[in-house]
Design brief:
Blueprint lengths: L46 E4 L2 E4 L45 H7 L4 E8 L1 E7 L6 E9 L4 H16 L8 E2 L7 E5 L2 E6 L5 E7 L5 H13 L33
Antiparallel strand pairs: 1-2, 3-4, 4-5, 5-9, 6-7, 7-8, 8-9
Length: 256
């Protein structure tokens, strides 16, 4: 079964962060705190690589124990991002801003609590539904194709031959978003869309957002002006310019 390489770990609601005063993050402050473009290699025995994403191997060994801030709990002590990974020994912030806005997810997909981001093959943004305490994630990446149609066609070929093994697997246009393409297989959804010099890809799972809601999220990503690779980050939380920790209480708290 096709799955993303993320494992859930419970997080008490008392550890969640809130918004406050603005915090400017400069390129110099990212040194050794943000991820390299791909810290998880395709030959890692825990994962298999396909379609530009990483998925769990069928016989993955036990996950590493928690060993760093942001692993299993939200953490902002790095001064770069609200860091969160369900379970990575050394999670790191995403290396670039691809225009993700958590407020669009909260508006169009549900009133989810934003847990944080981390880089694991692609940039993952993690949420929790406070009513059910179930996790939600959305992953965003830049593609090396000149158009969304070409990126989707390359993706379709890989999925049809190596994953779905269905020659009829094919992306279709995203309704209401000119030039965007999307597809789904076994509960995983992908969307490729224009708007920036680089085509971007959004990935999510069944039940994380309605089709109508995710179309609005994609529209917002398309409409977001391109962000320079080395531009200072405006916030620890994407799309919330004034977000920072409520105080020192969030620092290095263990997960529950």
């Amino acid at each position: 079964m096709l799955r993303r390489a993320h494992l859930a770990l419970a997080l008490p609601l008392s550890l969640l962060c809130s918004a406050g005063c603005p915090q400017q993050v400069t390129p110099d402050s990212l040194d050794k705190k943000a991820a390299a473009p791909d810290p998880v290699k395709p030959d890692d025995p825990r994962v298999v690589a396909d379609s530009g994403d990483l998925y769990p191997a069928k016989s993955a060994p036990p996950s590493e124990p928690e060993a760093a801030p942001g692993s299993g709990s939200s953490d902002e002590t790095n001064g770069v991002c609200r860091l969160f990974s369900p379970k990575q020994p050394e999670p790191v912030c995403c290396p670039e801003d691809l225009g993700f806005d958590i407020t669009k997810i909260q508006k169009h997909c549900g009133e989810f609590v934003y847990l944080g981001e981390s880089m694991y093959g692609t940039c993952g943004y993690h949420f929790m539904d406070p009513k059910t305490e179930k996790r939600r994630w959305f992953r965003l990446s830049a593609e090396e194709h000149p158009s969304a149609a070409e990126a989707a066609a390359s993706h379709d070929q890989l999925v049809s031959t190596r994953v779905a093994r269905d020659p009829n697997f094919k992306s279709t246009p995203v309704p209401g978003v000119p030039g965007a393409m999307w597809s789904t297989y076994n509960g995983i959804h992908w969307a490729f869309f224009p708007g920036w010099p680089q085509v971007r890809k959004l990935t999510w799972r069944d039940g994380f957002c309605s089709d109508e809601g995710i179309v609005e999220v994609i529209k917002a990503l398309v409409a977001t002006p391109p962000i320079a690779a080395k531009a200072p980050r405006k916030s620890l939380v994407p799309g919330v310019p004034d977000a920072k920790p409520e105080g020192e209480a969030e620092k290095a708290q263990p997960s529950g």
